[in-house]
Amino acid sequence: MNAPWTPGRTGQREPFTAFVCDESSADALRSIAVEQGWSPEKVNKGGLRNAVQSLSVSASPSILFVDLSESGDPLNDINALAEVCEPGTVVIAAGQVNDVRLYRDLLASGIQDYLLKPLNPEMLRDCFAQAQATLSAPKMAEGGNEHPHCALAIIGTRGGVGASSVATSLAWLLSSKGERTTGLLDLDVHFGTDALSLDLEPGRGLTDAIENPSRIDGLFIERAMVRASDRLAILSAEAPINAPIVTDGSAYYQLQEELRHAFDCSVVDLPRSVMVQYPHLLTDIQTVVLVTEFTLAAARDSIRLLSWLKSNAPQATVILVANRVHPAAQLEISRKDFESSIERKVDYVIAFDQKLATQAAKLGRPLAEAGKGSKTIAPLVSLSQQLLAANEDEIDGDKNKAGKGGSLLDKLSALKPKKPAKQNAK
Predict the structure, then answer these.
(1) DSSP readout, 386-422?
(2) Please, which residues bridge with residue 209 across strands?
(3) What keywords were assigned to this record (predicted)?
(4) Longest C-alpha distance within the chain, in Å?
(5) pLDDT in tens, 260-291
(6) What pLDDT score was predicted for residue 356?
(7) What domains can be seen in the chain, in order of their start residue?
(8) What is the 3-state secondary structure (H, E, C) of 34-71?
(9) Contact in structure between 81 and 91 (CB atoms under 8 Å)
(10) Is 188 helix (H, G, I), strand (E, B) or coil?
Protein backbone atom coordinates (compact mmCIF):
# COMPACT_ATOMS: atom_id res chain seq x y z
CA MET A 1 0.00 0.00 0.00
CA ASN A 2 1.54 3.29 -1.09
CA ALA A 3 -0.29 6.21 0.49
CA PRO A 4 1.16 9.66 -0.13
CA TRP A 5 1.79 11.82 2.87
CA THR A 6 2.99 15.33 3.54
CA PRO A 7 5.98 15.55 5.88
CA GLY A 8 5.27 17.70 8.92
CA ARG A 9 7.51 20.56 9.82
CA THR A 10 10.32 19.33 12.01
CA GLY A 11 11.11 22.71 13.53
CA GLN A 12 8.88 22.16 16.57
CA ARG A 13 10.38 18.74 17.33
CA GLU A 14 13.44 17.83 19.35
CA PRO A 15 16.33 17.61 16.86
CA PHE A 16 17.70 14.37 18.31
CA THR A 17 16.89 11.60 20.78
CA ALA A 18 18.68 8.31 21.38
CA PHE A 19 17.85 5.13 23.28
CA VAL A 20 20.82 2.81 23.88
CA CYS A 21 21.53 -0.34 25.89
CA ASP A 22 25.05 0.24 27.23
CA GLU A 23 27.06 3.06 28.79
CA SER A 24 29.83 2.91 26.17
CA SER A 25 27.38 3.67 23.35
CA ALA A 26 25.74 6.36 25.47
CA ASP A 27 29.10 8.10 26.03
CA ALA A 28 29.93 7.99 22.31
CA LEU A 29 26.54 9.50 21.39
CA ARG A 30 26.70 12.18 24.09
CA SER A 31 30.07 13.35 22.73
CA ILE A 32 28.74 13.63 19.17
CA ALA A 33 25.52 15.26 20.40
CA VAL A 34 27.56 18.05 22.02
CA GLU A 35 29.47 18.53 18.75
CA GLN A 36 26.17 18.87 16.87
CA GLY A 37 24.74 21.34 19.36
CA TRP A 38 22.21 18.83 20.68
CA SER A 39 21.45 18.16 24.33
CA PRO A 40 23.45 15.17 25.65
CA GLU A 41 20.55 14.59 28.06
CA LYS A 42 18.57 13.29 25.09
CA VAL A 43 20.68 10.12 25.14
CA ASN A 44 18.58 7.67 27.17
CA LYS A 45 19.19 4.16 28.43
CA GLY A 46 16.80 1.32 27.58
CA GLY A 47 17.06 0.59 23.87
CA LEU A 48 14.10 -0.11 21.60
CA ARG A 49 11.63 -0.96 24.36
CA ASN A 50 12.21 2.35 26.14
CA ALA A 51 11.98 4.19 22.81
CA VAL A 52 8.51 2.74 22.14
CA GLN A 53 7.29 3.58 25.63
CA SER A 54 8.63 7.14 25.52
CA LEU A 55 7.44 8.00 22.01
CA SER A 56 3.95 6.71 22.74
CA VAL A 57 3.43 9.72 25.01
CA SER A 58 5.66 12.34 23.36
CA ALA A 59 6.43 13.75 19.93
CA SER A 60 9.04 12.04 17.77
CA PRO A 61 12.35 13.84 17.26
CA SER A 62 13.76 14.78 13.87
CA ILE A 63 16.52 12.16 14.26
CA LEU A 64 15.91 9.03 16.34
CA PHE A 65 18.72 6.64 17.30
CA VAL A 66 17.65 3.23 18.66
CA ASP A 67 19.76 0.34 19.95
CA LEU A 68 18.48 -3.09 18.89
CA SER A 69 21.02 -5.08 20.93
CA GLU A 70 18.44 -6.41 23.40
CA SER A 71 15.90 -7.26 20.69
CA GLY A 72 15.48 -10.95 19.93
CA ASP A 73 13.68 -10.26 16.63
CA PRO A 74 14.65 -6.79 15.36
CA LEU A 75 12.51 -6.85 12.21
CA ASN A 76 9.39 -7.83 14.12
CA ASP A 77 10.06 -5.56 17.10
CA ILE A 78 10.63 -2.55 14.86
CA ASN A 79 6.92 -2.66 13.99
CA ALA A 80 6.16 -1.49 17.53
CA LEU A 81 8.31 1.56 16.87
CA ALA A 82 6.38 2.26 13.67
CA GLU A 83 3.15 2.48 15.67
CA VAL A 84 4.42 5.43 17.71
CA CYS A 85 6.94 7.10 15.40
CA GLU A 86 5.61 10.04 13.40
CA PRO A 87 6.33 10.59 9.69
CA GLY A 88 9.26 12.88 9.03
CA THR A 89 11.53 11.22 11.58
CA VAL A 90 14.85 9.80 10.34
CA VAL A 91 15.55 6.56 12.22
CA ILE A 92 19.05 5.19 12.76
CA ALA A 93 19.52 1.80 14.39
CA ALA A 94 22.52 0.08 15.94
CA GLY A 95 23.15 -3.50 17.02
CA GLN A 96 25.60 -6.33 17.50
CA VAL A 97 24.38 -8.66 14.73
CA ASN A 98 26.76 -8.44 11.77
CA ASP A 99 24.54 -9.85 9.02
CA VAL A 100 24.08 -8.45 5.52
CA ARG A 101 20.53 -9.82 5.22
CA LEU A 102 19.46 -8.09 8.46
CA TYR A 103 21.11 -4.87 7.29
CA ARG A 104 19.26 -4.93 3.98
CA ASP A 105 15.94 -5.90 5.58
CA LEU A 106 16.17 -3.05 8.08
CA LEU A 107 16.90 -0.53 5.33
CA ALA A 108 13.99 -1.89 3.32
CA SER A 109 11.69 -1.53 6.35
CA GLY A 110 12.37 2.20 6.55
CA ILE A 111 15.38 2.50 8.85
CA GLN A 112 17.85 4.91 7.24
CA ASP A 113 20.98 3.33 8.65
CA TYR A 114 22.13 0.32 10.69
CA LEU A 115 25.43 0.68 12.55
CA LEU A 116 27.43 -2.20 13.97
CA LYS A 117 28.56 -1.76 17.57
CA PRO A 118 30.86 -0.69 19.10
CA LEU A 119 30.16 2.83 17.90
CA ASN A 120 32.97 5.16 16.95
CA PRO A 121 32.93 8.97 16.43
CA GLU A 122 33.68 8.93 12.70
CA MET A 123 30.89 6.44 12.02
CA LEU A 124 28.40 8.54 13.99
CA ARG A 125 29.43 11.83 12.34
CA ASP A 126 28.95 10.38 8.85
CA CYS A 127 25.62 8.86 9.77
CA PHE A 128 24.22 12.05 11.32
CA ALA A 129 25.44 14.09 8.35
CA GLN A 130 23.42 11.80 6.07
CA ALA A 131 20.39 12.15 8.36
CA GLN A 132 20.56 15.94 8.33
CA ALA A 133 20.94 15.96 4.55
CA THR A 134 17.82 13.80 4.31
CA LEU A 135 15.86 16.20 6.52
CA SER A 136 16.96 19.19 4.45
CA ALA A 137 16.16 17.62 1.07
CA PRO A 138 12.79 18.40 -0.57
CA LYS A 139 10.32 15.52 -0.48
CA MET A 140 8.68 15.24 -3.88
CA ALA A 141 5.79 13.00 -4.76
CA GLU A 142 6.04 10.37 -7.43
CA GLY A 143 3.26 10.30 -9.94
CA GLY A 144 1.48 13.11 -11.70
CA ASN A 145 -1.40 14.12 -9.46
CA GLU A 146 -3.19 17.12 -10.87
CA HIS A 147 -3.68 18.65 -7.43
CA PRO A 148 -1.59 18.45 -4.26
CA HIS A 149 -3.63 17.25 -1.35
CA CYS A 150 -5.64 19.83 0.59
CA ALA A 151 -5.83 18.88 4.28
CA LEU A 152 -8.18 20.80 6.60
CA ALA A 153 -9.12 20.51 10.26
CA ILE A 154 -12.27 22.14 11.61
CA ILE A 155 -12.20 22.92 15.34
CA GLY A 156 -14.86 24.64 17.45
CA THR A 157 -13.79 26.95 20.26
CA ARG A 158 -16.91 25.98 22.20
CA GLY A 159 -19.58 23.32 22.00
CA GLY A 160 -22.53 24.51 19.95
CA VAL A 161 -20.74 27.04 17.76
CA GLY A 162 -21.56 24.97 14.66
CA ALA A 163 -18.13 23.58 13.78
CA SER A 164 -19.69 20.42 12.35
CA SER A 165 -22.06 22.48 10.23
CA VAL A 166 -19.09 24.39 8.82
CA ALA A 167 -17.20 21.11 8.25
CA THR A 168 -20.00 19.48 6.24
CA SER A 169 -20.63 22.66 4.24
CA LEU A 170 -16.96 23.06 3.35
CA ALA A 171 -16.69 19.39 2.40
CA TRP A 172 -19.75 19.75 0.16
CA LEU A 173 -18.44 22.97 -1.45
CA LEU A 174 -14.99 21.50 -2.11
CA SER A 175 -16.53 18.42 -3.71
CA SER A 176 -19.35 20.03 -5.68
CA LYS A 177 -18.21 23.55 -6.53
CA GLY A 178 -14.50 22.82 -6.40
CA GLU A 179 -14.90 19.47 -8.18
CA ARG A 180 -12.39 17.81 -5.85
CA THR A 181 -12.86 14.34 -4.44
CA THR A 182 -13.29 14.96 -0.72
CA GLY A 183 -13.16 12.73 2.35
CA LEU A 184 -14.87 13.91 5.53
CA LEU A 185 -13.67 12.38 8.82
CA ASP A 186 -15.83 13.02 11.90
CA LEU A 187 -13.79 12.19 15.01
CA ASP A 188 -16.61 12.77 17.48
CA VAL A 189 -17.08 9.03 17.76
CA HIS A 190 -20.04 9.08 20.16
CA PHE A 191 -21.96 12.23 19.26
CA GLY A 192 -20.83 13.27 15.78
CA THR A 193 -23.48 14.85 13.54
CA ASP A 194 -21.74 15.07 10.16
CA ALA A 195 -23.45 11.94 8.79
CA LEU A 196 -26.77 13.14 10.17
CA SER A 197 -26.32 16.46 8.36
CA LEU A 198 -25.88 14.52 5.12
CA ASP A 199 -28.88 12.26 5.82
CA LEU A 200 -26.65 9.20 6.01
CA GLU A 201 -26.20 6.26 8.38
CA PRO A 202 -22.68 6.47 9.82
CA GLY A 203 -21.92 2.74 9.61
CA ARG A 204 -19.27 0.88 11.64
CA GLY A 205 -16.19 1.89 9.66
CA LEU A 206 -14.73 4.30 12.18
CA THR A 207 -15.27 2.09 15.23
CA ASP A 208 -13.84 -0.89 13.32
CA ALA A 209 -10.76 1.17 12.48
CA ILE A 210 -10.25 2.19 16.10
CA GLU A 211 -10.63 -1.39 17.32
CA ASN A 212 -8.36 -2.84 14.59
CA PRO A 213 -5.84 -0.23 13.36
CA SER A 214 -3.91 -2.93 11.48
CA ARG A 215 -6.86 -3.26 9.07
CA ILE A 216 -6.58 0.33 7.86
CA ASP A 217 -5.49 0.49 4.24
CA GLY A 218 -6.81 1.70 0.90
CA LEU A 219 -9.26 -1.16 0.55
CA PHE A 220 -10.62 -0.58 4.05
CA ILE A 221 -11.19 3.12 3.27
CA GLU A 222 -12.98 2.23 0.05
CA ARG A 223 -15.33 -0.16 1.84
CA ALA A 224 -15.84 1.73 5.12
CA MET A 225 -16.56 5.23 3.88
CA VAL A 226 -20.17 6.12 3.14
CA ARG A 227 -20.78 7.93 -0.13
CA ALA A 228 -22.72 11.19 -0.04
CA SER A 229 -22.11 11.88 -3.74
CA ASP A 230 -19.73 10.90 -6.53
CA ARG A 231 -17.06 13.18 -5.06
CA LEU A 232 -17.90 13.26 -1.34
CA ALA A 233 -17.60 10.43 1.19
CA ILE A 234 -17.71 10.37 4.98
CA LEU A 235 -16.28 8.22 7.74
CA SER A 236 -18.03 8.67 11.08
CA ALA A 237 -19.55 6.70 13.94
CA GLU A 238 -22.37 6.56 16.43
CA ALA A 239 -20.69 4.48 19.10
CA PRO A 240 -22.74 3.37 22.13
CA ILE A 241 -22.33 5.91 24.91
CA ASN A 242 -21.67 3.09 27.38
CA ALA A 243 -18.65 1.99 25.33
CA PRO A 244 -15.62 4.23 26.01
CA ILE A 245 -13.15 4.56 23.15
CA VAL A 246 -9.77 3.03 24.00
CA THR A 247 -7.10 4.15 21.54
CA ASP A 248 -3.65 5.68 21.44
CA GLY A 249 -4.64 7.81 18.45
CA SER A 250 -2.68 5.78 15.90
CA ALA A 251 -5.88 4.70 14.14
CA TYR A 252 -6.96 8.32 13.70
CA TYR A 253 -3.60 9.22 12.22
CA GLN A 254 -3.57 6.26 9.85
CA LEU A 255 -7.06 7.18 8.67
CA GLN A 256 -5.85 10.69 7.86
CA GLU A 257 -2.98 9.20 5.89
CA GLU A 258 -5.29 6.98 3.86
CA LEU A 259 -7.64 9.89 3.14
CA ARG A 260 -4.69 11.77 1.65
CA HIS A 261 -4.14 8.84 -0.66
CA ALA A 262 -7.78 8.38 -1.65
CA PHE A 263 -9.00 11.98 -2.02
CA ASP A 264 -7.97 15.37 -3.36
CA CYS A 265 -9.16 17.01 -0.12
CA SER A 266 -9.62 15.75 3.41
CA VAL A 267 -11.74 17.56 5.99
CA VAL A 268 -11.31 16.46 9.61
CA ASP A 269 -14.03 17.49 12.06
CA LEU A 270 -11.78 17.54 15.12
CA PRO A 271 -13.28 17.88 18.62
CA ARG A 272 -11.21 19.90 21.05
CA SER A 273 -10.84 16.95 23.42
CA VAL A 274 -9.39 14.77 20.66
CA MET A 275 -7.08 17.57 19.52
CA VAL A 276 -5.66 18.03 23.03
CA GLN A 277 -5.23 14.29 23.61
CA TYR A 278 -3.65 13.56 20.21
CA PRO A 279 -1.83 16.72 19.05
CA HIS A 280 0.07 14.73 16.39
CA LEU A 281 -3.15 14.63 14.34
CA LEU A 282 -2.36 18.21 13.29
CA THR A 283 1.21 17.45 12.18
CA ASP A 284 0.39 17.46 8.45
CA ILE A 285 -2.72 19.66 8.45
CA GLN A 286 -2.29 22.62 6.10
CA THR A 287 -5.23 24.72 7.26
CA VAL A 288 -7.13 24.91 10.54
CA VAL A 289 -10.56 26.51 10.44
CA LEU A 290 -11.29 27.69 13.97
CA VAL A 291 -15.02 28.21 14.44
CA THR A 292 -16.12 30.58 17.20
CA GLU A 293 -18.92 32.87 18.40
CA PHE A 294 -19.03 36.37 19.84
CA THR A 295 -19.18 35.49 23.54
CA LEU A 296 -16.80 36.04 26.46
CA ALA A 297 -16.24 32.29 26.89
CA ALA A 298 -15.46 31.88 23.19
CA ALA A 299 -13.06 34.83 23.31
CA ARG A 300 -11.22 33.20 26.20
CA ASP A 301 -11.01 29.84 24.45
CA SER A 302 -10.07 31.42 21.11
CA ILE A 303 -7.04 32.97 22.81
CA ARG A 304 -6.07 29.64 24.34
CA LEU A 305 -6.56 27.66 21.13
CA LEU A 306 -4.72 30.17 18.94
CA SER A 307 -1.76 29.96 21.30
CA TRP A 308 -1.93 26.15 21.35
CA LEU A 309 -2.04 25.94 17.55
CA LYS A 310 0.92 28.29 17.24
CA SER A 311 2.98 25.89 19.36
CA ASN A 312 1.63 22.56 18.13
CA ALA A 313 0.77 23.22 14.47
CA PRO A 314 3.04 26.07 13.35
CA GLN A 315 2.89 24.87 9.74
CA ALA A 316 -0.88 25.37 9.55
CA THR A 317 -2.68 28.48 8.36
CA VAL A 318 -5.38 29.35 10.93
CA ILE A 319 -8.61 30.84 9.58
CA LEU A 320 -10.99 32.25 12.20
CA VAL A 321 -14.72 31.97 11.42
CA ALA A 322 -17.45 33.48 13.57
CA ASN A 323 -20.56 31.37 13.06
CA ARG A 324 -24.25 31.78 13.87
CA VAL A 325 -23.76 35.51 14.47
CA HIS A 326 -26.89 37.34 15.65
CA PRO A 327 -27.64 41.02 14.98
CA ALA A 328 -25.29 43.42 16.77
CA ALA A 329 -27.86 44.39 19.40
CA GLN A 330 -28.18 40.75 20.49
CA LEU A 331 -24.46 39.99 20.78
CA GLU A 332 -22.85 39.27 24.13
CA ILE A 333 -19.67 40.93 22.91
CA SER A 334 -19.20 43.08 19.79
CA ARG A 335 -17.00 41.97 16.93
CA LYS A 336 -14.66 44.90 17.60
CA ASP A 337 -14.25 44.01 21.28
CA PHE A 338 -13.88 40.32 20.42
CA GLU A 339 -11.09 41.02 17.92
CA SER A 340 -9.42 43.38 20.36
CA SER A 341 -9.41 40.76 23.11
CA ILE A 342 -7.95 37.99 20.93
CA GLU A 343 -5.56 40.41 19.16
CA ARG A 344 -6.41 39.34 15.63
CA LYS A 345 -9.12 39.79 13.04
CA VAL A 346 -12.00 37.44 12.40
CA ASP A 347 -11.65 36.25 8.80
CA TYR A 348 -15.27 35.30 8.06
CA VAL A 349 -18.61 36.05 9.72
CA ILE A 350 -21.60 33.77 9.04
CA ALA A 351 -24.94 35.22 10.08
CA PHE A 352 -27.43 33.18 12.08
CA ASP A 353 -30.29 32.12 9.78
CA GLN A 354 -32.87 30.08 11.68
CA LYS A 355 -35.06 29.51 8.63
CA LEU A 356 -32.19 28.17 6.55
CA ALA A 357 -30.86 26.00 9.40
CA THR A 358 -34.30 24.45 9.86
CA GLN A 359 -34.67 23.84 6.13
CA ALA A 360 -31.23 22.19 5.93
CA ALA A 361 -32.05 19.91 8.86
CA LYS A 362 -35.38 18.87 7.35
CA LEU A 363 -33.79 18.13 3.98
CA GLY A 364 -30.78 16.34 5.45
CA ARG A 365 -28.45 18.62 3.51
CA PRO A 366 -25.43 20.73 4.47
CA LEU A 367 -26.19 24.40 5.08
CA ALA A 368 -24.24 25.39 1.97
CA GLU A 369 -26.28 23.07 -0.23
CA ALA A 370 -29.66 23.99 1.26
CA GLY A 371 -28.90 27.69 0.98
CA LYS A 372 -27.62 27.87 -2.60
CA GLY A 373 -27.60 31.50 -3.65
CA SER A 374 -28.30 32.73 -0.10
CA LYS A 375 -26.26 35.59 1.34
CA THR A 376 -25.97 33.55 4.53
CA ILE A 377 -23.63 31.01 2.93
CA ALA A 378 -21.62 33.55 0.91
CA PRO A 379 -18.79 33.56 3.52
CA LEU A 380 -18.59 29.76 3.30
CA VAL A 381 -18.36 29.94 -0.48
CA SER A 382 -15.61 32.57 -0.21
CA LEU A 383 -13.74 30.43 2.33
CA SER A 384 -13.89 27.35 0.10
CA GLN A 385 -12.59 29.44 -2.81
CA GLN A 386 -9.74 30.70 -0.65
CA LEU A 387 -8.81 27.13 0.27
CA LEU A 388 -8.83 26.03 -3.36
CA ALA A 389 -6.84 29.09 -4.44
CA ALA A 390 -4.20 28.34 -1.81
CA ASN A 391 -4.08 24.79 -3.14
CA GLU A 392 -3.50 26.06 -6.68
CA ASP A 393 -0.77 28.39 -5.40
CA GLU A 394 0.96 25.31 -4.04
CA ILE A 395 1.04 23.89 -7.56
CA ASP A 396 2.34 27.12 -9.08
CA GLY A 397 4.99 27.50 -6.41
CA ASP A 398 6.13 23.88 -6.83
CA LYS A 399 6.15 23.38 -3.07
CA ASN A 400 6.90 20.16 -1.24
CA LYS A 401 4.48 17.42 -2.19
CA ALA A 402 3.60 14.09 -0.72
CA GLY A 403 6.10 11.23 -0.70
CA LYS A 404 5.21 7.56 -0.98
CA GLY A 405 4.53 5.36 2.02
CA GLY A 406 1.86 3.13 3.47
CA SER A 407 2.57 2.03 7.00
CA LEU A 408 4.40 4.44 9.28
CA LEU A 409 7.59 2.57 8.53
CA ASP A 410 6.94 3.04 4.82
CA LYS A 411 6.70 6.75 5.48
CA LEU A 412 10.03 6.67 7.25
CA SER A 413 11.36 4.83 4.24
CA ALA A 414 10.19 7.64 1.98
CA LEU A 415 12.79 9.86 3.61
CA LYS A 416 15.57 7.35 3.04
CA PRO A 417 18.42 8.56 0.75
CA LYS A 418 18.86 6.77 -2.55
CA LYS A 419 22.28 5.53 -1.49
CA PRO A 420 22.70 4.29 2.09
CA ALA A 421 25.47 5.74 4.22
CA LYS A 422 28.66 3.74 4.35
CA GLN A 423 28.53 0.95 6.88
CA ASN A 424 30.85 -1.46 8.54
CA ALA A 425 28.27 -4.27 8.30
CA LYS A 426 29.74 -7.25 6.51
Answers:
(1) HHHHHHHHHHHTT----B--SSHHHHHHHTS-SSPPP
(2) none
(3) ATP-binding, Nucleotide-binding, Phosphoprotein
(4) 78
(5) 989 999 999 999 999 999 999 998 899 999 99
(6) 95
(7) 16-136 (3.40.50.2300), 150-399 (3.40.50.300)
(8) HHHCCCHHHEEECHHHHHHHHHCCCCCCCEEEEECCCC
(9) yes
(10) coil
